[in-house]
Amino acid sequence: MPVRINKIFQRMALAGSALLAGVAAFASMRPADQTGSTTAPPPQIRRLTEVQYQATIADIFGPDIEIRGRLEPDIRSGGLLAQGSSVASVSSAGLEDYESLARSIAQQVVDDKHYDHLIGCAPSPTDVDGRLCAAKALGAIGERLYRRPLVTAEIARYIALVQEASRRAADFKQGIAAALSGMLTSPSFLFRIDRLASGGGVARLDGWSKAVRLSYFIWNSTPDDTLLAAASNGELDKPAGLARQVDRLLASPRMKEGVRAFFSDFLRLDDLNEVSKDATIYPAFTSGVPAAAREQTERTLIDLLVDRGAGYDAVFTSRRVAINRTLSPLYGIPTPAGWSFHEFEADDPHTGLLTQIAFLAQHSHPGRSSPTLRGKALREILMCQPVPSPPANVNFAVVQDVNNPTLKTTRARLQAHLDDEECASCHKQTDPVGLSLEKFDSAGQLRERENGEPIDTRAEFMKDHYDGAAGLGPLLAKNKMVSDCLVQSVYRFGTGRALVPGDQATVEGLAQNFEKDGKHVPALFRAIATSPSFYAVRAPRLAKLTSGRKDIPHVD
Amino acid sequence: MAFVLDDMSWEAPPEQGVCEPLADGGLEAFIKSLTPEERASYPRANLRELQQLMAKRWGFKYARLEKPVPDFDAQLRRAGSEEALPVALRTQIEELRRQAGVPPGKGTINNAGRLFSYESCTDPEDFPQAAAGYRPYDGKLAMGINLDGKSKRGDFTSPDGQIGIDNALWRVIGCTKIFREATERDPSQKGFTNAQAPTLIEISGVDDPHNDPDVEVTVAISAIGAAVDARGGPLRNASYDPEQEPAMASGRGKGRIVDGVLTTEPFEVTIGAKSQIVDAVRRLRQARIQAKLNDDGTISGGFYGYYPIDSFWESMRQFTQNGADQTQLSCPGVYAALHRYADGLRDPRTHKFTGVSTAIRFTGVPAFIVRPPVSAPASAAAAKGS
Known about the structure:
The complex is a heterodimer of chains A (about 550) and B (about 375). By secondary structure, chain A is mostly helical. Mean pLDDT of chain A is about 90; it is low at about 1-35 and about 545-555. Chain A has helices spanning about 5-30, 30-35, 50-60, 80-85, 90-110, 115-120, 130-145, 150-170, 170-185, 185-190, 205-220, 225-230, 240-250, 255-265, 290-305, 315, 330, 355-360, 370-380, 395-400, 410-420, 420-435, 470-475, 480-495, 505-515, 520-530, 540-545; strands spanning about 45, 190-195, 320-325, 340-345, 450, 455, 460, 465. In chain A, helix 5 runs antiparallel to helix 9 and helix 24 (about 480-495) crosses helix 25. Chain A has a two-stranded antiparallel sheet with strand order 1-2. A two-stranded antiparallel ribbon of chain A has the order 3-4. Chain A has 27 helices and eight strands. Helices cover about 50% and strands about 5% of the residues of chain A. Chain B is an alpha+beta fold and about 375 residues long. Helix content of chain B is about 20%, strand content about 30%. Residues about 180-190 and about 380-385 of chain B have low confidence and may be disordered.
């Protein structure tokens, strides 16, 4: 029978970490010069995202361990879930979910299928109560889960928990499960907690924190044994050693997971989970399309930017796209079973990211396309250029009337809407580029006509005149705001925070080199991961503000 | 251009009252054979006891397999006959016959490989008593075309007045309840859909979809199930892999398109018959396709040809393998009628007809047939479609 851990202890610990996370994030958002200290940001406490949680469990216990349950929803901040992770806490309901998951995972680890290779020991004549076994097994697993070695007191506490739970359940394995549940619900597992190195006079991250930052940035998962060893032996504190580990991580196929995680976050592909279409208008938009569309975009980007080594420009001009049979009916093309790649002809309107179903369908209404939403997404996501929300009293009647006998096309209806001067100021930013994508309906399907009228996709983007998606792609590819937006977004993704003034020079330098070196995304990851700014931290001032403890980051 | 057929059915005429009363099934025939006292002792509600009595009295025999034979029907189809099955399986079948006390060559493995059965649907000729109450369709109208170019005794008239319509299968099954899906009175319009292994039609060499004097038509069985759209209907432009098994292959037919209507020369057509525990094929010989290529991209029309009795019966045997006595079908009645009304595929040795003329209506939506690449690499799949 499963034994529950000391719930009160866990609740207290998590509540404390949540508080710290909130305060740290608040501090991180304040301009550094207002803190009265250096321009470096304070230490961070970042909650694992759902994908990171899943990847971490798979890395530590194996991919066959099922994650049966839900996790506290991720939070988007500054357009990124990664940035939101440093302001995320755990609610009471969320804690219940984490506990439930922890028990489920722990029970799988100690089941007959996994126990021998994951735990590998049991009480014996020379270890009657199993203390040695528990210390060895939990010490090793604990280092992976906490991403640092366990301190003596922690191991002692978990051994005591194993013994107590074993006694109650009359089963040593259940004792191990109880301890594992405790670890899996601990803030040290659920949160990536920056720890400061001792000595030296200047605040700096310790090796373990650097390893964690690196690993979740490049692999979107927990550090492996080699990286933990590099953290332990000080390799990460030396530029050459750090570069060696960065190159090792980037050389691994697992770096694709990091790049994939970034683009999923950057393009807000998780929002596709909420996308649905009117089945009577778009019958080919089946229930599997949103997930497949997300996969399509991620696969296409990995293929282009990693496997084929193309620069970021190609994202907007490439005609090569990943496809499967869930999506192929929307394109009206044949495709073999599973995922494959399709190259559109040179004169095909399918050109680049903006003509993929993920972008087109996500930034449309359920029953009609939306040049405004598409244009807004382009400005906000790809150019990091905020667009104001419409006032609450806008009359959308003309735009929404798709059966208007005289205003047959979206362009015509929007033009009527733009006759209102108040609306026009914002729509001028968004609609032209959106209208150039109008040959793709709300489901992302190509169309030549709307209500029998030919669709006009001529538009202007930052004083350049062009026609359709194929014309827009090259303009985006050469646009500096687009590439600068990517650079600062990757940087914010890696650091998990908004830019602070101290970042300015670093990000500008990264952007310059990115532009100069052909806009290669893996190289950008490397440049960020080897940049001192990536690990910069100032001594926390939180201790004086809260409990006075000197080991604030060490919440356990 | 290619299509996946989303609906196929025995093409039935608009007729009223011809089939009153419907043909009796095997169980009905058995009940009518009982004395009034027995009928009182074995009411229909006690179906299991009634079935046990039926099996005992009519001599049905069974032997349960300790370990099910996987995919027996598919193995039998690939082998072509019991004699061509692997030696171990043939030996097992012989042992099952011995256990069940079944005559040599009789009975077969049924119930998804779990039961060896000898009863009125595995061996319809051995149980003529189950044919009592069977009746054919004796109306004047039937759907179909004039396959042999003749107008002869037994031919039907089409609803639009054409004479010489050949559709002997409808005469055999037209008044049998299980072929009349919607109600007992209305003729079936949806006799069989085939979502697990839909039939594919490919028309190649099309220069003009409205008029083309020379096109080639192939028919294939899909190796994957039918794709469904967000409304629950057939998904347009889905990609399908054709079955590669030689026993499921069709021939190629020459055809022409006139005013949007496709008409082929006769050729060999194999269509799927797979659902739940059934894994059969329907072979049509000297089959023609007449179908309208609709402006909305769909196709609607029919297969018209001769259905070999052996092929028809294999699908019937599988459809009834959960026990003929549980069906509303008289296997012996239908089987005898198939031979009685056979009108095509004359055996050159015996000079007897071995097939029945038939008409199978279909509708389909645009699709792609993706054939495997002739050689590696696997990633560069050769896709062929519209």
